[in-house]
């Protein structure tokens, strides 16, 4: 069977730092796959390699059998790879609606010429895609903030807008880097349900980095565990968590080690929320 | 308060088409139409002097709009905009003088040629950031100006090039009164085009590149393409404006289009509002009217103590430059969002009056 994604012997070095060492794993088409591991284990680095932000020092990446190792980041969206970021990366001064519309960039054909004329198909196309965006807005319950400037939203809402933007490019493979970090219980519950829907209803293959073990156990089909840039386990969630290496690596001492204060997302200040 | 919506309660949109119009409400659209109609009567009521001021605001407003695409929307910087303005002016004059093409056509052609030259300079500039980008655009300014002073065949070299009045197939428009309408038409079309651009794919891509280039790239946006494109678009409007200026002044020369003019263009968009389309015009009006206001003040003070102390008449140009410098700094410090933002707040205040607190 052809894999949606195959990571083959990927190593990544930053000067003397080995962020990844010969990491290999494969994600099946339609799977909900989680990457876990302590902070600094290399989880974000692997997602950056898949989305094209980092180029592996060694090794290869295959997407539906196609070698994408050296592909430019902006050439990956049209192939159907979308992602969200661990530290929010919205277009701060744009409205929620426009943020999500940017996600449809590669699906739109109007250009600076037809766009400036708002004619020759540009208008019709914009309105068609606006309809698609409204469906995503409805799905993620963002109706009340669609006209708000993204930078003024609460942390939890911004995370959701990022998900909406990634969904808008209609990915076949969606990469979610800590989609629930910094959320309260209720927000996490909503987010977990959205992710399951992405996978089951929208048919997207999901690769998720998440620290909340409860969620990972609940919703993932399979899990890979990284530690110090190496893969230490892979398999279904229950087996992986029972693995002695994994226990030693980071489940050992306390239950909540998974939330490292250093990696806590920066919450917007109260002033920022009110502004 | 700053984010108070200006849409009256009860104004519900029934379709996405109605929700994506340029004007958010019927009232705002009618106000704009009324404004344009009133402006169209200007030549009938204004003196020649004030009409020329309006024409200048119109022409420079088009050039500043181009610069705002580059600086305000794409987050680049340029201190070479005046050179592209001049390129448009020389190109249109040259084409019309040497080929049987009426001015009506040479103006847009000059815009396109200036845009192509802008793209050429944009290719290296799009790969640079910060100070390096500033230096690169400064180089563009000097290279072009140097070219104009050397290429006698193109620009007349040390003698100013002459330009013909606006013409179309043998029919010639003479005088400010009719030229005012030419500029008004170009101004309206330019602002309409840019407004449309900003609500469609490529305009959003430019802003995305400005706001967060890494995630823009993940959304499939080619950063280099859009940064280069924004130089081309900026140059296009500079070229159009320059061409309009050439056939208004009827001569073109390098004088007055050095780097200080490029900085004045930047002043227009900083004062009006970086990344604001309507603010661009407000900022341009401000910068064009400022010397007029200063002249008026110096006239009022004539003969008084302040006049004697500062020798206002002799130092007017000098004082004007200081004033513009101070005003730019004041806007950067106290009103970084420009006049457009202040204007929105004033409107919001009056909408809610007397319950604004
Ligand atoms: N751009 C970078 N430059 C230098 N070091 C980096 C960079 N990105 C990641 N690293 C290093 O690589 C290691 C793995 O980081 P990361 O992938 O962010 O871990 P995780 O997401 O699992 O917390 C860390 O030691 C981090 O400091
Ligand atoms: Mg991380």
TrEMBL record, chain A:
InterPro entries: AAA+_ATPase (IPR003593), ABC_AA/LPS_Transport (IPR051120), ABC_transporter-like_ATP-bd (IPR003439), BCA_ABC_TP_C (IPR032823), P-loop_NTPase (IPR027417). Pfam families: ABC_tran, BCA_ABC_TP_C. The keyword Transmembrane does not apply. Signal peptide: none annotated. Residues 5-253 form the ABC transporter domain. SMART domains: AAA. One of its GO terms (molecular function) is ATP binding. PANTHER family: ABC TRANSPORTER ATP-BINDING PROTEIN, CONSERVED COMPONENT OF ABC TRANSPORTER FOR NATURAL AMINO ACIDS-RELATED. Involved in beta-(1-->2)glucan export. Transmembrane domains (TMD) form a pore in the inner membrane and the ATP-binding domain (NBD) is responsible for energy generation. This is ABC transporter ATP-binding protein. It comes from Rhodopseudomonas palustris.
From TrEMBL, chain B:
Coiled coil: none annotated. The keyword Cell membrane applies. Keywords: Cell membrane, Membrane, Transmembrane, Transmembrane helix. It is found in: Cell membrane. The chain crosses the membrane at residues 32-52, 59-87, 99-123, 130-148, 178-194, 229-248, 263-291, 312-334. The keyword NADP does not apply. InterPro entries: ABC_transp_permease (IPR001851), LivM-like (IPR043428). One of its GO terms (molecular function) is branched-chain amino acid transmembrane transporter activity. It comes from the Bacteria. This is Branched-chain amino acid ABC transporter permease. It comes from Rhodopseudomonas palustris.
């Amino acid at each position: 069977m052809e894999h949606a994604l195959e990571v083959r012997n990927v190593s990544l070095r930053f000067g003397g730092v080995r962020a990844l060492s010969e990491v290999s794993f494969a994600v099946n088409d339609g799977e909900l796959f989680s990457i876990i591991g302590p902070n600094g284990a290399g989880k974000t680095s692997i997602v950056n390699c898949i989305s094209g932000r980092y180029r592996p020092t060694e090794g290869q990446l295959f997407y539906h059998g196609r070698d994408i190792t050296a592909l430019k980041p902006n050439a990956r969206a049209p192939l159907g790879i979308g992602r969200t970021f661990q530290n929010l990366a919205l277009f701060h001064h744009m409205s929620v609606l426009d943020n999500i519309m940017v996600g449809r960039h590669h699906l739109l054909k109007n250009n600076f010429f037809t766009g400036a004329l708002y004619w020759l198909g540009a208008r019709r196309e914009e309105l068609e895609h606006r309809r698609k965006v409204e469906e995503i807005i409805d799905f993620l319950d963002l109706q009340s903030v669609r006209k708000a400037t993204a930078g003024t939203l609460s942390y939890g809402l911004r995370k959701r807008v990022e998900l909406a933007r990634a969904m808008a490019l209609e990915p076949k493979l969606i990469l979610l880097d800590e989609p629930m970090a910094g959320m309260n219980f209720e927000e996490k519950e909503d987010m977990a349900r959205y992710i399951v829907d992405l996978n089951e209803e929208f048919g997207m293959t999901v690769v998720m980095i998440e620290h909340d073990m409860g969620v990972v156990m609940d919703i993932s089909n399979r899990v890979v565990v990284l530690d110090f840039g190496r893969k230490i386990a892979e398999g279904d969630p229950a087996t992986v968590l029972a693995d002695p290496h994994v226990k030693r690596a980071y489940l050992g001492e306390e239950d909540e080690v998974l939330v490292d204060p250093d990696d806590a997302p920066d919450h917007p200040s109260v002033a920022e929320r009110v502004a | 308060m700053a984010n108070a919506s200006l849409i009256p309660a009860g104004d519900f949109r029934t379709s996405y088409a109605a929700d994506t119009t340029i004007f958010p409400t019927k009232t705002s659209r009618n106000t704009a139409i009324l404004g344009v109609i009133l402006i169209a009567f200007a030549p009938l009521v204004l003196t020649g002097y004030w009409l020329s001021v309006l024409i200048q605001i119109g022409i420079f407003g088009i050039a500043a709009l181009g610069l705002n695409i580059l600086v305000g929307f794409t987050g680049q910087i340029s201190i070479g905009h005046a050179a592209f303005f001049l390129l448009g002016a020389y190109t249109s004059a040259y084409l019309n003088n040497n080929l049987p093409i009426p001015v009506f056509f040479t103006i847009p052609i000059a815009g396109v040629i200036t845009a192509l030259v802008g793209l050429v300079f944009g290719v290296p500039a799009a790969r640079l950031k910060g100070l390096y980008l500033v230096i690169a655009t400064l180089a563009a300014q000097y290279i072009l100006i140097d070219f104009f002073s050397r290429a006698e065949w193109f620009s007349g070299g040390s003698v100013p090039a002459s330009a013909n009045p606006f013409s179309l197939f043998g029919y010639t428009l003479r005088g400010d009164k009719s030229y005012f309408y030419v500029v008004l038409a170009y101004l309206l079309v330019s602002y309409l085009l840019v407004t449309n651009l900003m609500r469609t794919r490529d305009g959003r891509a430019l802003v995305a590149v400005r706001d967060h280039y890494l995630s823009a790239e993940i959304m499939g946006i080619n950063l280099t393409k859009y940064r280069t494109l924004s130089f081309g678009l900026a140059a296009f409007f500079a070229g159009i404006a320059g061409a309009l200026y050439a056939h208004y002044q009827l001569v073109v020369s390098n004088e007055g289009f050095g780097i200080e003019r490029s900085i004045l263009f930047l002043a227009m968009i900083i004062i009006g509002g970086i990344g604001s389309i309507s603010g661009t015009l407000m900022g341009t009006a401000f910068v064009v009217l400022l010397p007029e206001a200063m002249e008026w003040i110096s006239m009022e003070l004539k003969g008084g103590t302040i006049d004697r102390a500062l020798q206002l008449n002799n130092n007017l140009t000098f004082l004007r430059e200081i004033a513009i410098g101070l005003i730019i700094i004041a806007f950067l410090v106290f009103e970084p969002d420009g006049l457009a933002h202040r204007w929105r707040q004033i409107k919001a205040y009056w909408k809610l009056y007397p319950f604004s607190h």
